[in-house]
Design goal:
Layout lengths: L8 H8 L6 E7 L7 E9 L2 E9 L9 H13 L17 E3 L2 E7 L12 H18 L15 H6 L8 H17 L10 E4 L8 E4 L8 E5 L6 E4 L1 H10 L2 E3 L5 E3 L1 H12 L6 H28 L11 H12 L7
Antiparallel strand pairs: 1-2, 2-3, 3-5, 4-5, 6-9, 7-8, 10-11
Helix pairs in contact: 3-7, 5-8, 6-8, 8-9
């Protein structure tokens, strides 16, 4: 989540008037994330305050794909998976327009995202729920291509070429070599289990409860399904291992948290067992996950509007994770 397109109070009021959700009480930008524009939106209705999330879709999300995303999220909710469903407008439309962007208002999920520190207990809650998500997703029969799958990485790398004197040129050369290595060993589509994946399952896209009571940590919801697609199920696992299972010390060095990785994988497999080839390819997929987000962050770093409220994320952080996975098979299996 992030803010790229400003929305004034008056603009939010006019958009909200298309819904039967009450009167606008508060509008707060959500600065986490990197893709779409998001606001916390509070309303008053029947003497109560209600909480929602307003989303404006930016360029990386294709407007033609929005019905697929919304249909999939509604399907998840109908099958008792905690996902943030959108609300219809008074005329029944789920997608409107706000400041020349497709926009919608969705349910606010209780809980805390971006937990810190990330612990084995948190990773266990994530693991079993991700497996449940994958199993429920098997019932959604309409496929969607992964627009940021491995087939797109060569073009994405070319779009991010940097001046030869800059540190980004060195990063470009590193990514180019890594891409050749990863491509040479990537599995064919029919070799491993596929299904619906989240595709962007970072800590800011998962909500947890149980911190205040110091009881059992529970996953209370997943959000931001706008990179969901049909691909290898193991791809979601690789993203978790690459972006939930590291600590960064004061010197900027990254340290792999083996206990978190083991807890996550054990919990996942308690619901859905991995195949032999999934286990074999998972270290390679971890390299791929680090590289994929290196490439999109590299692109964002060179193309992000200066007036955007959010600063692009550091692609060099992904390089460190990629370097780790390229030099070890120890990922918690």
């Amino acid at each position: 989540m992030a803010v790229y397109t400003p929305v004034s109070w008056e603009e939010a009021q006019a958009f909200l008037a298309k819904y039967d959700l009450g009167a606008l009480q508060d509008l707060r930008p959500i600065k986490q994330g990197t893709e779409n524009t998001n606001f916390f939106l509070d309303t008053a209705q029947n003497g109560k305050i209600h909480h929602f999330v307003l989303t404006l879709f930016e360029k990386r999300v294709k407007e033609a794909d929005l019905p697929w995303f919304i249909g999939f999220v509604k399907y998840l909710a109908e099958n008792q998976f905690p996902a943030a469903t959108p609300f219809p407008q008074k005329q029944g439309e789920l997608i409107g327009r706000l400041n020349s962007r497709p926009a919608l208002i969705s349910k606010f999920l209780e809980g805390q995202n971006n937990p810190s520190p990330i612990t084995p207990e948190i990773c266990a809650a994530l693991g079993k729920n991700l497996a449940k998500f994958h199993l429920i997703g098997q019932g959604w029969k309409t496929p969607r291509k992964n627009d940021l799958g491995i087939e797109s990485w060569t073009a994405l790398l070319k779009q991010s070429e940097a001046d030869k004197e800059s540190r980004f040129h060195t990063l470009h050369l590193y990514a180019e070599k890594a891409l050749k290595r990863i491509l040479s060993d990537w599995p064919l589509k029919n070799e491993m289990p596929q299904g619906q994946i989240h595709g962007d399952l970072f800590p800011d896209n998962v909500m947890f409860t149980g911190f205040e009571e110091k009881g059992e940590i529970s996953l209370s919801g997943m959000i931001d399904f706008y990179f969901a697609c049909t691909d290898f199920l193991a791809w979601d696992l690789a993203i978790i291992l690459a972006f939930w299972c590291f600590d960064v010390n004061q010197d900027g060095e990254i340290l792999f948290k083996l206990d978190c990785a083991q807890s996550f994988l054990k919990s996942y497999e308690s619901v859905r067992a991995l195949t032999k080839l999934e286990k074999q390819k998972l270290p390679l997929f971890c390299q791929g996950a680090a590289l994929r987000f290196l490439l999109t962050r590299f692109y964002d770093w060179t193309h992000c509007p200066k007036e955007a409220f959010v600063k692009p994320k550091d692609p060099f952080d992904c390089q460190k994770r990629l370097h780790y996975f390229a030099n070890t098979e120890e990922i918690g299996l």
